[in-house]
Input
Amino acid sequence: MIHLTPADYTRQPWKNGRGVTTELWRIERHGQLLVRLSRASVVEDGPFSLFPGIDRNLTVLSGPGFRLVGPGHDFRCDPLVPVAFPGDAALTATETNGQQSDDFNVMTATHLPRPEVLVAQNEMLPAGGHLAIYALSPVQVNGHQMDRADLVLTKRPATLTGDWPVLAVRFQGLPKL
Output
């Protein structure tokens, strides 16, 4: 099990220059992104960055949420509801109404199986692939204490205990960590 805390994360500007991302974890092979987990805040209406060759999944963690719209796409991004969308779609955040929404982002190369993103609480997540567990408040994973905003990576089953849910991401087809 790998346990990361906010001290391990890095901040970087958005690809479109309109905000900042906190990168939690990333895997690259031969200079190509395979997986990235990050946090960001959407504070105003505007375009999302394009990421050709990447599948995206966004979950609003706090705030009212917003809408992502573009040619052939219309997604409502509500709190604690994972939303999957193609990284190469020209999407614009709308209906922010001047209110900040903080979100958790999962990016995976399109050649990999799409990850399963779920909100889980007080349950056992079976083994299978790699699990990334992001704590929204203090919780325990297999008796191991996690603080708010910590990330645990494991290939083992995970028993979750605590008063708040976590975001869990199950990846298949990743290289050995």
Summary: The chain has a mean pLDDT of 93. The longest strand covers residues 32-42. The chain has two domains: 10-109, 116-171.
